Amino acid sequence: MQHQYQANYQQPIDYTRMLNNVLQQRHQAHLLSWDCQPSGPEHQLTYTAYAYINGQFLGSGQGNTKGQAKNAASYYVLTNLGAV
Fold it and tell me: Source organism's superkingdom (predicted)?
């Protein structure tokens, strides 16, 4: 009898891609812009990403990388848009 182990690993949700898809469906993808700012010591930077649609601030997020920060901000933008 062979035992099989299946890891209970779930990949994180790509909210940045989800946001791009929602904005494409609304013909607004070209209106999305980002501003990413690092903070903290060089050996332990934290990034804050700010999301703007048509120049209007809609959300921000923080992470250890720019990608993580954008993903966190995308979640809040999607929430503000009523998409999640």
Answer: Eukaryota
